[in-house]
Amino acid sequence: MTDKSPLTLYLAAPRGFCAGVDRAIQIVEMALEKWGAPVYVRHEIVHNKFVVDGLRDKGAVFVKELDECPDDRPVIFSAHGVPKSVPNAAQARNMIYVDATCPLVSKVHIEAQRHSDNGLQMIMIGHEGHPETIGTMGQLPEGEVLLVETVDDVATVQVRDPDQIAYVTQTTLSVDDTIDIVNALKARFPNIVGPHKEDICYATTNRQEAVKAIAPQSDALLVVGAPNSSNSKRLVEVASRNGCNYAQLVQRGADIDWRALDGIKTVGITAGASAPDVLITEVVDAFKARYDVTVEQVETAQENVSFKVPRILREPVPAAE
Question: Catalytic residue numbers?
């Protein structure tokens, strides 16, 4: 017999690592294998302290800017993407560099460049100061990409020519919020050019859809993720909007506020795209230690995406002369 209260955990699927994050971590590990430690990484490779600490233990050195890196060691650019000035500076110093930018972010960069080549000024829907936004805006000269964060921003944005503009979006935004901003842009600028295919990545969309499926039946919903992870924070917002009264971001099992969960019968659990499985398991195990848990997986999509690592990592190190 158990004196633990019964609790149903709804485990959202898909959850956790996406293909771009998987690839970025693999890039750092392969670089350490190929060139040995230390390997420098500009910014957190992905937004997760557990992942970053693990790579640091293996010999990765995380820096804010390229000028903190020595010329003679490889440097890796994070999955969020970098302004064009960064690889240009690395080339000027003859550095070995590996770009771990997620291919879906690179797609947005290429799109922005193509529109600019066609004479269009860009509007970017994104969060100011987020590394991905800085990277995308940094693909084009100053003033060529204008940032809007909200529907209200659309009303005040000053463009050169209302008939010569296009928009791109950060890949980790709330799908629902972005639709509202896009609709506002189209209402104000009827000739605005949009992406061929939605910029918000498949993983962000899938994780938000899974949360929408479990939120209405969950007394509480926990998102395993980092406080600086845009896609994780969006999952908390999606849960709150879709009928869950208590939605919180937790980094680890130890962060769970048990008092706030007093008397609950059902909990939804998901994880942002940069949260590893080991942390999701840790959160589930924390519930199992306190409750008589039944786990139900709620799957809304299947993911089988994978991205190749850059060629430089697949080639052998040239033999010394």
Answer: 132
